[in-house]
Amino acid sequence: MTQNKAILYMVFSAIAFSLMGAVVKYLSTFHVYQVVFFRSIGTLLFTIPLVLKQKVPFWGTNKKWLIIRGVAGVISLTCFFQSLNYLSIGTAVSL
């Protein structure tokens, strides 16, 4: 049962990532920072209830690495969304 659940999560993740790429490509008329901002707000609204429900410390156990991970995530998301503005979806995803 656990293996089937993991496979289902992987398929769902691949579909969600593809849809996100298609939506970002469709929204190429907006500035990339606007798209990153609103995608991040959506993620924040989705994850805050999960963090509160699981009683996970909001700032984690190592604040320095959490901030570094956040900055790296924003930079990588910005670069990925920017690449979708100039390249086809298949090329941008394969990079």
Walk me through what this model shows.
This protein is mainly α and 95 residues long. Helix content is 82%, strand content 0%. It has one domain (2-94). It has helices spanning 2-26, 32-54, 63-86, 89-94. It is globular, with a radius of gyration of 16 Å. The mean pLDDT is 90.
List the domain count as a whole number. Answer: 1
What pattern of helices and strands is seen along the backbone? HHHH
Roughly how many Å is the radius of gyration?
16 Å
- Total helical segments: 4
Strand content: under 5%
Query: What is the overall silhouette?
Result: globular
| Estimated helix fraction | over 70%
The CA-CA distance between the termini, in Å, is: 34 Å
- The chain-level mean pLDDT equals 90
The total beta strand count reads: 0
pLDDT < 50 stretches: none
Please give the largest β-sheet: none
Query: Structural class, from helix and strand content?
Result: mainly alpha
Q: What topology does this entry show?
A:
Layout lengths: L1 H25 L5 H23 L8 H24 L2 H6 L1
Give a concise summary:
The chain is mainly alpha-helical and 95 residues long. The chain contains four helices and no strands.
Task: Give structural attributes.
mainly alpha; 4 helices; 95 residues
